[in-house]
Amino acid sequence: MSQQRVRRELELAHDLQLKLLPSPAVVAAKADVAARCRPAESVGGDFYNLLSLHGDRVGVMIGDVSSHGFGAALIMALAMAASGIHAETAESPHEALRRLEMSLAEELAETEMFLTLCYVVANPAEGVLTYANAGHPHAFLISTQDGALKRLGATRPPLGLGDGGQERVEQCERGKAILCLFTDGLADARGPSGERFGEQRVLSHVVNLRGRPARDILEAVFTDIAAFTGGAPANDDRTLVLLKV
Question: For strand 115-123 and strand 128-134, is the pairing parallel, antiparallel, or unpaired?
Fold first, then answer.
């Protein structure tokens, strides 16, 4: 009976966690966005956020807590709640991450966890992306004209491992770029022989399908990874966010 109760509570926690994640519909009037998070366990430490900001701007955030399970899920829930507030009030992505780190400082110290996070503010009307990247490795801008890739490198340490840093600005023609953010769970997924799915395999779908809607690209990635792993349970959370600028 106790095992059934624990299982049921895990299922409820999983459902609640997924309900915290926003629907792409919140920014659909401004941009073509697709997003999906698949926790490895009943609850996980990945999250994303989508924000309709003042004017034509769209905020896109992805985060990956350094563990998973209940501890990571707690950090994830706190980060989700705080990130929306700070993104709305902060003047820049870098300032939003600084405030978010202050909000999470006590919990990150107590759990000895850290959080990689990339926050991008897109202004499609002006063709400008402004971003701050707290040590998140999988953040890219892909040209829809020639498929050229540009990594949006780290601008500061992960949250919980030090502050400082800056933000950066990227110029892109309207309708000519795709923002691609994902977590380690996609790149590190293993096939039956132990082979990694790999970062390039994710990116190849974006490049090859760059003329298609964001949802089509996302479905292609998750269909491929399911076939690659033979449907085996994930050993890490898998999250992907795509924004066609």
Answer: antiparallel
Cα separation, 50 vs 103, whole angstroms: 19
Enumerate the β-bridge partners of residue 62.
48, 118
Measure CA 232 to chain center.
22
Assigned CATH for 2-244: 3.60.40.10
Torsion sign, CA atoms 184, 186, 187, 192: positive
Q: What would the two tokens of residue 112 be?
A: 């000895």
pLDDT at 39: 75
Q: What is the pLDDT of residue 9?
A: 64
Q: Give the pLDDT of residue 139.
A: 97
In this structure, the strands spanning 46-52 and 128-134 are unpaired
Model confidence over 74-99: pLDDT tens digits?
Answer: 788 888 889 888 988 888 999 999 99
Q: What is the torsion angle, in degrees rounded to the nearest 10, for the CA atoms of residue 118, residue 130, residue 89 and residue 55?
A: -130
Task: Tell me the C-alpha distance between 76 and 79, whole Å.
Answer: 5
The arrangement of strands across the sheet holding 58-65 comes to 46-52, 58-65, 115-123, 128-134, 168-171
Question: DSSP letter at 72?
Answer: H
The structure tokens 């299922």 sit at 11
Tokens for 243, please give them: 């924004």
Q: Tell me which of 13-17, 30-34, 141-145, 184-188 is least confident.
A: 13-17
**Angle between helix 199-208 and 214-229 (nearest 10):** 140
Instruction: Say if residue 53's pLDDT is above 60.
Output: yes
Please report, as a single letter, which amino acid is at residue 126. Answer: E
Helix axes 2-20, 70-89, angle to 10 degrees: 20
